[in-house]
Design goal:
About 40% of the residues lie in helices and about 15% in strands. It is an alpha+beta fold.
């Protein structure tokens, strides 16, 4: 969303506040002083857990609204969305409901 000029700033801010306040964005300052080691082996001061997003319907709706705006602006010829299992499936479905673009999903 940082690159999108059409997504309203207040919507971006609201999404980030929701993600942080609902503990989908964890930080080494607030949550885990040692940070996290990613699968790549790199250390990170942040951990983003979007599997919880569907537990917060209003936040999921806002994400779908923002992503729909970004898709229309940056990729207007997109005709399918793919939700990567597991966290991506409800996100893609929400974007489908907001944008009208059909979606599908992958399986592991």
């Amino acid at each position: 969303m940082p690159g999108s000029k059409s997504v309203p700033v207040d919507l971006k801010r609201s999404i980030m506040e929701d993600i942080y306040n609902n503990r989908m964005l964890l930080t080494s300052v607030r949550d885990r002083p040692g940070g996290w080691f990613l699968i790549s082996g790199q250390w990170s001061p942040f951990y983003i857990q979007l599997r919880l997003l569907s537990s917060f319907p209003e936040t999921l709706r806002k994400v779908a609204e923002a992503m729909s705006i970004m898709i229309r602006e940056e990729a207007p010829h997109v005709n399918r969305l793919v939700g990567v299992s597991f966290a991506g499936v409800p996100i893609a479905t929400a974007i489908t409901l907001e944008s009208g673009i059909p979606s599908c999903h992958t399986r592991k």
